[in-house]
Predict the structure.
Amino acid sequence: MTRAVTVAAPPAPAPPDEPRRPAPADPDVSDDWFALEEPSGATDAWAILGIAWRSIRGNASRSLLTALGVIIGVAAVVALTAIGAGVTRNVTQNLERLGTNLLTVGAAVTRATGGIVRSGDASSITVGDAEALRDLQLADARVLGVAPSVTSTVQVRAGGLNTTAQVLGTWPDYGVVRDLEPAAGAWWSDVDVEGRARVAVIGHDIAGELFPGTDALGQSLTLGTHTFTVVAVLPDKGAGFGSPNRQVLVPLSTYLQRLARSQVAGGASAQALSQVFVRATDARHLEALQADVTALLADRRGEFDLSALSFQVQNQADTLESLTSVSRTLTLFLGAIAGISLLVGGIGIMNIMLVSVTERTREIGIRKALGARPQDIRLQFLIEAVVLAAGGGAIGLALGAIGAGSVSDLLGVAAVLTLPPMAIAFGVALAVGVAFGLYPAQRAARLDPVASLRHE
Amino acid sequence: MTPPSLAVEHLSKVYPLAEEDFYALRDVSFEVPVGEYVALMGPSGSGKSTLMNLIGLLDTPTEGRTWLAGQDAGDLDPEEAAAMRNQHVGFVFQSFHLLPRLSVRENVEVPLTYAGYRPAVRRRRALEVLDRVGLGDRVNHHPSQLSGGQRQRVAIARALAMNPSLLLADEPTGNLDTETGMDILALFDDLHRQGSTIVMVTHERDVAARCQRVLRLRDGRLESDSAGRAAPAAA
């Protein structure tokens, strides 16, 4: 650093009588310090970065437009995967909350028919099936509880207020099966089921909306045209898939008589159910119990082809697996779509860079005349593309995080920002910058200096 | 013995055409010793620009060789040619060719950047050569804020920045009014007195008259050499 530097002397005046003669071999009075400084011989990359940065900044609006595709692409990847991960976590948590020793009996979802099997179809699980399973409970110590469920969405009114709730008809064991201990009051009993009592256990949100600031216990609410008495309020189980917060739970018999949309011929035991839950006392018994329940129902329903049953008995692990695989597929799918937009963003960069090379042909020519090597020019344009992609990627990460946050507020699902998709999105943005920057940079590097200087 | 700043030997540039090859330059040879101030004259189409581009290593000859400060500039790949151009040739163009986004000082720093000098050295050197051309007080201006004469001074400072073996000026007063043009020519005179080797393309006799030596081109051939040192190619 501390090299001796001679202060540049003013140019020596030439002898006045010899104006056309060169000063004999006395060159560069002011250049000797400069000759002492060793150039590295290679342009330093920081200087080229500086050149690239100035050109980006000098054309800020075009630079932003160039990076826009990458910004949107990265933001989309980050937001969509975060929301997807949020949904996955939500579903998983809700299922895990149910416990692992739960069997769910429902109609088989047959891929052959392609459609969703609705309650009321011939293949539906019926009240009779549920009763058969309750008989099993009495004989089998491995069964902790059996509870059917049949649901519909209805308007609920109380006082001057009203809201929408999911009404669920079931048995008192539902509390045992789903681990729903009331925060206040007590579950209605078998007696209420027998007597088709108009009693209801309500979820936390419903209580808050219909009876704000007051005790809901003992109050009346109206489901459709029928008035029910609130006997218990459930604790807050959190929002999301499968949460009881927006449910109103009534005796199955009451539901079937007063609230079911249509009555089915064949008496009460032929009534269709959505599902029947069977809870084992211990997870160890689950597999054996699953087989026994399947055998019992197949026998009862007269089905002997075990490969084509009209119902299915799933344990929690199966359900969890199928749901997470669905949501993982969804997340991947969203990510792939977002990835395509990132690719399109890269093509946008290439497009503008090609325009930029043409526009700056003369600048390139001048730089070459001044000693810029083709590799210097190539590096300059490549760095420009990468800086644009990286900048766009960074802005995209921020926008994606903000977007995921606001969308998750809207959906009521907490988005989960995880590092891998963010890192991948940013990495892909950088790779896109390099990949789509190479061709324009190569074009710039190969421009003929003579022609470029003449270019207007 | 100091090698000449510039030597060209049997330089030809041929553009193949359908009918017959077009010789933009045909077997041109001459030397320019260190410190000489040479005018390169000739009507348009005589091959002046072609010769300039070949001397400045912007183009490659079909035949022949160029030496800059004793170094053979034949058979260079584009990377090597750029490095040699950077080190040995200082261009001054008719239309200045400054980079509009950069300040005066940054324009002068461009060749130093490509040579790999440290920022502090670049800056000091740029300020020094700008001082030498009388623009020490305009270093942070941008080209658009300068007059034509001042812009050409910046271009000359930029050409001097690397202390090149050869200043190659292509009609440097062509875009300037007479008075400003005289100032620029006076600056070249000064540089010449200070020892710079200058090759200046011009078609004005009074410009050429300031030079020590006049080379005339016609139809791609070296027609005459006022110093009589280069043997004109046989017609």
